[in-house]
Amino acid sequence: ERNTHKYHSRDKRKAPRQRYEPAYLAPDTANEIIEARGLLELWVGESLGDGSIDKDSLRAQGKSLLANQAELVGRSTITTYTVENSKEPVIVLKAVESYRAYGEMLLFYAMKTLVAYAANHDQVIDDLLGKRESHLSPWENVGGQLVRRDRVEALLQDLKEGSIKSWDEVHQRYSEWGDSYEEDTLSHALGVLSFLLGEKRPTGDLWKSLVDETKVLVQKIEQEIYHSKEKDHLNHFKYTTYRNEEERDAVLGNLKDDLLIKTVHKEMETFLDQLERVSFLRNSSSASGDRDLEK
Question: 55: which of 36, 108, 220, 275 is 20 to 30 A away, CA to CA?
């Protein structure tokens, strides 16, 4: 969150020609997180599984262990030989905590993207789940602009074939990518949600559970940002460079007036409001939807 807002404040372009994505949770990073979770599943399976040589089997075993026997995984030594070019194993620390944190990041990304789209376009969640394409296609970072890989490959093919012959035409394609970014990101977020739920289609009850879990994550994010900024004020070694608290606050600013904390709080309040306003079904009045209906 801190880096996202730093980027916004430093982007001084007068006439932006590309739609940059400064958010740390976006389609490309979400894909990397999914890949990282897969590696953790594999390493746990290799360390605690049945010794199979089949990677899919080991990954499935690791996934089950991380989900159902977290305490066992936490007190076990998880190793891998695939991180370094060495005969010595690398010890993977905090596999359970990392796996859980990655899952929370994916849920927050998917829910924030889905709910924001529904709120901005007067849509209900069940319609988006049923009528929109869901995919986890690869994405590329093209100079700060995020684009589906198939779109980039199409541009490269057009350049090779000569159907695009000028920089203006290339820039026009970039502009078209920017126009389709919201729809493409929605499809990707739906794919992430499907991945997290194991292809299970959410009902009203499940959606309510996801909303409640997301609210907890919002509170957690705000707390972590506050604690991160608070460290600058409470660090003993940094404090020794100031004569008193007034001098420190004159340099670092007062936590109560911190711009980042205020900005993130405002954004999270907006998101929480969207969570409450967006309905699961068309005739429903809140995010909880109709608990008795399953589409």
Answer: 108
What is the bridge-based pairing of β-strands 145-148 and 139-142?
antiparallel
The reply to whether 242 falls in a domain is yes
Taking the C-alpha atoms of residue 138 and residue 144, their distance in angstroms, rounded to an integer, is: 16
Q: Domain check: are 210 and 180 in the same one?
A: no
User: Same structural domain for residues 245 and 269?
Assistant: yes
SS3 50: coil
N residues, the chain: 295
Alpha-carbon distance of 155 to 173, in angstroms, equals 8
- Give the residue with greater pLDDT, 258 vs 5: 258
Same domain, yes or no: 185 and 121: yes
In a domain, 3, yes or no: no
Domain boundaries, position 190: 106-196
In this structure, the answer to whether residues 64 and 125 fall within a common structural domain is: no
Q: Has residue 25 been placed in a domain? A: no
Q: How far apart are CA 185 and CA 10, in angstroms?
A: 24
Domain count for the chain, please give it. 3
pLDDT digits (tens, 9 = 90+) for 88-111: 999 999 999 999 999 999 999 999
Residues 123 and 192 in one domain: yes
Averaged over 228-248, what is the pLDDT?
83
* pLDDT value for 131: 79
**Model confidence pLDDT, tens digit, residues 17-55:** 677 887 889 999 999 999 999 999 999 999 999 998 999
Q: How many helices (H) and strands (E) does the chain have?
A: 12, 4
- Residue 51, in any domain of the structure: yes
Taking alpha carbons only, the member of 269, 214, 223, 4 closest to residue 104 is 214
- Per the structure block, which two tokens stand in for 264? 């993130």
- Give yes or no for a contact between 218 and 271, defined as CB atoms under 8 angstroms apart: yes
**Chain centroid, CA 62 distance in Å:** 22
Amino acid, res. 198 = G
